């Protein structure tokens, strides 16, 4: 297979966990990568210098999620032991913890400004905390089953959550109210995330598909049946034109949201791929799985091609329209909002961590671990842009209001037939567009001569 400078490439391989990897997060400056695992530990890998990884131990049960603060100075982890722990990622492994929920905590994320922390749990609740002093702010209740994931919007004004009750909910942080609910028909979402524009929400579904919902219309925007196993996680590229997917079929895929199709399939894991993440600039991404491995890849596909005109998934006018609608929504809420500023910032939290009697003895931090052996593996990148698969991969830009969907979908089999019919129509249109683009290229070359 001929490769190009725009194809993703495998960079590094890490192995140190004793059980499956559950979550990954790059340092904001891409100098470190933190991974969490079912083995109850965190590993902080150094990417820019030849230092051994740090292993942090303090949780009493599996760690299910981990993330860096926007400043990169602290890390938050969520565990099955019902606690959230705040770490200073240094060799001593200092940390403080607090009981966040009455059941396993599955998701944790810092707000864009780094002042708040969002958690989601099997106790069916989503909670918002102040990072400093670990102070509880408010709870978001409405799900009727385990909440798998909860995320901030890039502007920090909305939340999105998914649950085993087969719903995806969008919340207004100021009022604490649910403003939109999307109902999944065949299977629940395992992971949700906002598009960088804040106008679209993406979901990874256990029924092997990826869905994008348009918050402006409240309808399905794109649908991809790109995997053969459940999709465990998705991540939008920071520029918003690509999405990364991780699946139990042992593959990672790159989807082009502008063309509405998968463009790369990445192989390298020996089991389920459970976690993925992009670096803040989008130049690198990482994947982790049940095989205990962490693989680092270079994106390349996000490089600007000189012959192509820049395009966007959400046009500037559409985004402005969404922002205007969003401002109206928040205008009413802002009237009753007290302008309260938290006096303690993250620097004071770090100072507090230093002053408190923190758990940093040998039982909680093993310091540096043995240098990772360079086991020879052969990750594979498959370019699928020019492969006409027999599988129907996607529906692009299909706007189907949910009330209409529920009206005509009486069973999963009927829904699948409708999806397949739409796939055929879209594939036909896609082929036509390709032919027109080729003719246009020929004409342009003729005019230049």
Short description:
The protein is α+β, with helices and mostly antiparallel strands and 449 residues long. The protein contains 4 helices and 32 strands. It folds into 2 domains: 9-321 and 349-382, 7 Propeller (Methylamine Dehydrogenase, Chain H); 409-448.
Fold topology:
Elements: E1 9-15, E2 21-26, E3 32-37, E4 41-46, E5 54-57, E6 63-68, E7 75-79, E8 83-87, E9 95-99, E10 105-110, E11 116-121, E12 125-130, E13 135-141, E14 147-152, E15 158-163, E16 167-172, E17 178-183, E18 189-194, E19 200-205, E20 210-214, E21 219-224, E22 231-236, E23 242-247, E24 251-256, E25 261-267, E26 273-278, E27 284-289, E28 293-298, H1 316-334, H2 346-355, E29 365-368, E30 380-383, E31 394-395, E32 400-401, H3 402-408, H4 412-448
Antiparallel strand pairs: 1-28, 2-3, 3-4, 4-5, 5-29, 6-7, 7-8, 8-9, 10-11, 11-12, 12-13, 14-15, 15-16, 16-17, 18-19, 19-20, 20-21, 21-31, 21-32, 22-23, 23-24, 24-25, 25-30, 26-27, 27-28
**Main β-sheet: number of strands, strand sense, barrel status?**
6 strands, antiparallel
Oligomer: single chain
- Rounded Rg: 22 Å
Q: Helix- and strand-based class?
A: alpha+beta
Named CATH architecture of the largest domain: 7 Propeller
CATH C-level class of the largest domain is Mainly Beta
Characterize the overall form: globular
Number of strands: 32
What name is given to the CATH topology of the largest domain?
Answer: Methylamine Dehydrogenase, Chain H
What count of structural domains? 2
> How much strand content do the residues show?
35-45%
CATH superfamily of the largest domain: YVTN repeat-like/Quinoprotein amine dehydrogenase
Which regions have little confidence, pLDDT < 50, spanning 5+ residues? Answer: 329-345, 356-376, 389-412
> Which whole number gives the mean pLDDT?
82
For the termini, the CA-CA separation is 32 Å
Q: How many H/I helices?
A: 4
């Amino acid at each position: 297979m001929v490769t190009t400078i725009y194809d993703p490439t495998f960079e590094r391989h890490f192995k140190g966990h004793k059980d499956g990897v559950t979550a990954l997060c790059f340092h904001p400056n891409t100098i470190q990568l933190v991974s969490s695992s079912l083995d109850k530990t965190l590993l902080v890998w150094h990417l820019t210098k030849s230092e051994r990884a740090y292993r942090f131990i303090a949780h009493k049960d599996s760690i299910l999620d981990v993330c860096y603060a926007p400043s990169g100075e602290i890390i938050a982890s969520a565990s099955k032991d019902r606690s959230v722990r705040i770490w200073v990622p240094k060799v001593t492994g200092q940390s403080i913890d607090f009981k966040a929920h009455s059941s396993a905590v599955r998701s944790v994320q810092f707000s864009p400004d780094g002042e708040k922390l969002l958690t989601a749990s099997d106790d069916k609740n989503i909670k918002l905390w102040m990072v400093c002093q670990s102070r509880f702010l408010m709870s978001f209740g409405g799900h009727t089953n385990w909440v798998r994931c909860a995320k901030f919007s890039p502007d920090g004004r909305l939340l999105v959550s998914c649950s085993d009750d087969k719903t995806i909910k969008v919340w207004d942080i100021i009022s604490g109210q649910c403003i939109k609910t999307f109902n999944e028909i065949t299977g629940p979402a395992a992971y949700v995330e906002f598009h960088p524009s804040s106008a679209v929400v993406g979901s990874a579904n256990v029924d092997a598909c990826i869905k994008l919902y348009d918050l402006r219309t409240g309808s399905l925007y794109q649908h991809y049946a790109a995997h053969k196993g459940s999709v465990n996680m998705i991540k939008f590229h920071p520029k918003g034109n690509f999405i990364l997917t991780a699946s139990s079929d042992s593959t990672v895929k790159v989807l082009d949201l502008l063309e509405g199709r998968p463009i790369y399939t990445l192989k390298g894991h020996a089991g389920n791929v459970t976690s993925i993440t992009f670096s803040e600039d989008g130049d690198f991404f990482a994947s982790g799985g049940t095989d205990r491995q962490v693989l680092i890849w270079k994106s390349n596909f996000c490089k600007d091609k000189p012959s192509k005109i820049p395009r966007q998934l959400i046009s500037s006018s559409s985004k402005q329209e969404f922002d205007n609608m969003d401002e109206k929504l928040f205008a009413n809420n802002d009237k009753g909002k007290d302008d309260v500023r938290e006096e303690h910032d993250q620097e004071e939290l770090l100072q507090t961590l230093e002053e408190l009697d923190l758990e940093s003895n040998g039982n909680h931090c093993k310091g540096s671990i043995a240098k990772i052996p360079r086991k020879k593996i052969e990750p594979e990148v498959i370019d699928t842009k020019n492969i006409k698969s027999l599988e129907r991969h996607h529906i692009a830009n299909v706007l189907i209001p949910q009330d209409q969907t529920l009206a005509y979908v009486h069973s999963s089999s009927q829904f699948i037939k409708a999806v397949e019919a739409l796939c055929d129509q879209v594939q036909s249109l896609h082929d036509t567009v390709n032919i027109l683009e080729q003719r246009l290229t020929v004409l342009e070359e003729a005019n230049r001569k």
